[in-house]
Amino acid sequence: MYLLRVNMSNLRTALEPLPEEYKLLGNRGLVAEILCREVPARTNPLGAKNKLILAGGPLAGLGISSAARLSAGGKSPLTGGIKEANAGGIAVQRMTRLGIRAIIVEGQAETGKIYLLYLKKDGVELLPAGELKGLGTYDVAKKLRARYGKDIGVITIGPAGEMLMNLAGIFATDSEGQTSRACARGGLGAVMGSKGLKAIVIANDGDYRVPVHDEEAFKKARKEFIKVLMTTPQTSEIYTNYGTASALAPINKLGGLPTYNFRQGSFEKAEAIDGDALYDLIEKRNGAGKHSHACMNGCVIRCSNVVPDEEGNTLVSPLEYETLALLGSNLGIADLDAIASLNKLCNDIGIDTIETGAALGVAIEAGMAPFGDAQEIYRIIEEEIGQGTILGRVLGQGTLITGRVLGISRLPVVKGQAIAAHDPRAIKGMTITYAMSPMGGDHTAGVTLRAPIDHHKPEGQMELSRNIQVIVAAHDSLGFCMFVIPAVGGKPEYVVNLINAVYGTNFQPEWLMEYGKDVIKKERAFNLAAGFNEVHDRLPEMFLEEELPPHNLVSDLSEEDYRRYWDTEFWGEFPKL
Amino acid sequence: MYLLRVNMSNLRTALEPLPEEYKLLGNRGLVAEILCREVPARTNPLGAKNKLILAGGPLAGLGISSAARLSAGGKSPLTGGIKEANAGGIAVQRMTRLGIRAIIVEGQAETGKIYLLYLKKDGVELLPAGELKGLGTYDVAKKLRARYGKDIGVITIGPAGEMLMNLAGIFATDSEGQTSRACARGGLGAVMGSKGLKAIVIANDGDYRVPVHDEEAFKKARKEFIKVLMTTPQTSEIYTNYGTASALAPINKLGGLPTYNFRQGSFEKAEAIDGDALYDLIEKRNGAGKHSHACMNGCVIRCSNVVPDEEGNTLVSPLEYETLALLGSNLGIADLDAIASLNKLCNDIGIDTIETGAALGVAIEAGMAPFGDAQEIYRIIEEEIGQGTILGRVLGQGTLITGRVLGISRLPVVKGQAIAAHDPRAIKGMTITYAMSPMGGDHTAGVTLRAPIDHHKPEGQMELSRNIQVIVAAHDSLGFCMFVIPAVGGKPEYVVNLINAVYGTNFQPEWLMEYGKDVIKKERAFNLAAGFNEVHDRLPEMFLEEELPPHNLVSDLSEEDYRRYWDTEFWGEFPKL
Hints:
Largest sheet of chain A: 6 strands, mixed
Number of strands of chain A: 17
Distance between the termini of chain A: 28 Å
CATH class of the domain at 2-202 in chain A: Alpha Beta
CATH topology of the domain at 2-202 in chain A: Aldehyde Ferredoxin Oxidoreductase,  A, domain 1
GO molecular function, one term (chains A, B): 4 iron, 4 sulfur cluster binding
Protein name (chains A, B): Aldehyde ferredoxin oxidoreductase
Structural class of chain A: alpha+beta
CATH architecture of the domain at 2-202 in chain A: 4-Layer Sandwich
Oligomer: homodimer
Number of helices of chain A: 23
Family (chains A, B): Belongs to the AOR/FOR family.
Pfam family, one (chains A, B): AFOR_N
Strand content of chain A: 5-15%
Cofactor (chains A, B): [4Fe-4S] cluster; tungstopterin
Radius of gyration of chain A: 22 Å
Shape of chain A: globular
Largest interface: A-B, 31 and 31 residues
């Protein structure tokens, strides 16, 4: 197994054997480890000393369901802290077959030049890619698949990444070759753009297989793992049939659905854009439409979907809950076709739908367009952001800068990043996830929605979120999709058995929590060295003071809850950079 | 003596007796004290919980030269930390005669409404001021002087403050009624704008006199103080004849003059804009032109000037070194008329010439205009910033946001604020001033230029800057102009004798340093509570890595120098908020 170093300053690449101590570290854990070791915490996120890490995990390539996520990581230009964002798709399965655990992109190409990285069995090439300049992600994939064959995996940025926008994500192809899988958050697409790297092609000609210590135990563990996914209702029915859109109706009922720029927690037109509405639309139009769709080969959850247009052709795939909320209810848009089109456009330009929706909510509040005007919002994304006009570059820097430029100081951001579609006033566990996670306002750090707790009450939310955050960090670092957590989050033996079988370790189930804690502790160490402290581990005033209709709640966790979060009694000793 | 509280939320005003413990605290010291006591450090700088403090000092109104500076203070929207900026002019002399040490503006008026505060002997009025909306500062003063008489003092913001721009300062009238005196830095004009307060009129009908404990000792101390100012060459000749423009030639020679967006430390056309050139231009045109001009009555230094246009009419007054550098050499402009016109325009819109020049340097680097194109730069300031177009609002947020939006990450800012016209690579003491001051990149926190040290060498610069910063903080908090420091900075007995005579104290000269330290310690306490830490006490990478021609220097102070700065051995114990 190797690390591939790609130096954009001198255009050299080098394969290094994966250090023994990185063996069990993948994805988010590997990002944290490499950033702490190799990137000066105070450095300019868009400068030559930052590094972009694209990593898979230790269980990828072994036919385990949902275990081949692609992580992108680096110092974030949006938050100024550590950032990891992950996506499904086929890239990591191909990388793993080439024996590559992670790609570390270093240095910075000459201004104005862009390159393509081509990974294949017989070597690595770094090629000038002027012909891809300014292309949308869909066209990049189309062009590269025409050139290198349909079986390649593609990782790319859109024009937004080239323009160094904080909205920019890194997009990867799914089984159909569509750039629909996004390492969306934190502006990592701008980090890739700042390096001068436009895209990565990963051929499917590798034949490396991760050595398995005990094949029999492994097959048994894999079978059990797949079985538990297929027998847990959340992972075998709800996600499979309704995808993440299934969350919209219950969150709307809880009053935690961002609506009209976080002014309401319920949307009066929620029924037009919820899981049932999406299901019915796919059912009615049929054609290319699909309720269940696997973003990577072998996934049994298949939470993804394909949304067809009126003629039955693919409009976008997938359409997820966070997008329905941030580009839908948060902008007052109650039209699935309109939201799907906005989503497709964002994917093509290469931007995060969450940060984009939050920034547009603020721009609407500043008078830029009326709520619900999907056509004007489409135009703003396409012609302003996509073309990089001054207004587009303002929005392109995200919610915080949009607010500062337009004179709005009521901003739903933590550590510079917009929170996602679980309003922490109505789903109070998210107060802690958003406030404390080293990732900034990021729901994927720990969704508390499915816990059996009264989400409107502050009691117990700190402990709940903290536990989930650790569980998520562990799964994130092993390359798992977070959607396995409803099935195995409370039963670590399933995952630990897989690790033991493959790597010959003898871990007890408790190992997994310690492993997750170590990752978060490293992330925090990086952030502290980058200038964060407890003051940044808080929600903005709007969530503490502004009552959220219809339940008229504020986020009222006690200062004590925040303070206790980083107790060494829970975490053990913290490392220091 | 009173504090005047002005609550913009309920439009009530109240005079409170000055608390005994504030007796010796003025200006910057009073800002620090009130902010630490009354403003939650994490609050939104443009929200209702921030406070704008406009303060004079304990020695104002007593006929002491240079002792009636006006300080504006609050939590800065530019830096996110504490901010105090001060100016000359006549406001504080009038405030003091009305018995008012400071005005504390609290709360926030209804959106869209703006008010005028009118202070006079028989009371305080808060009046709707819709007719002043959008007016430039010169017109505000003109209008108010026409209405209330030529003898009033005016404090106002321009349209930039109303638009909540980080560039916005607070402008005060001089003896001629021109709004030429600027509490320029840190976006305090936006804080005033966020309150809904457009202007303050201070009538000249007060008859309060600060009680003097020992008149005879006071008269003697005042005489001695004035004498030392009048016999020190810097304060009696250089400042008087050449103003601050006298610094341009030596700084150019040292290689510390910001030129072409901080790419050079010397300007090949420096001779066209230096102190001699300005002197000659005033001499030649005569008319309203003046070499020596006092911004407040009774100042014997008279560092200010009046720059006449070709017809001999006032073009701008004063034209200062920092403006010559930031709007001149830094933008490649070598034309005194052009710089004076830009200066006038900035005063009128109500923006800081330093932050504006630094932001424009970055915009030029991003391709917005060619260096040296004074006409286009004038247009950008007038039509974009002044009119609040999207581009104008971007520039209006200052250098950091301009850079982020335009994709430039080489930014000359510390704690979010642009440094001024002493490049810390060639004047190495300024490394410490810019990096460590709680004020962010602000030269007025401690200019090391006149110290007998090799400015190109790192040795001794930390101690030098630290001492000067403490001395400056002390003088800033007593209401003195920092230009008295060349005369009395090393002889604290002059100032301490004045304090003892007026207030009946019995301080030794050493008291002054302890007094200054206390102010900085409070400021730091506020900043720490607001989220700053040692990571923010550093220069950006460009000054550490990019060699500055012609001497090809970088700022190379040791990490140890930075670390030792906050030694408790020097400072004593730090308070904690």
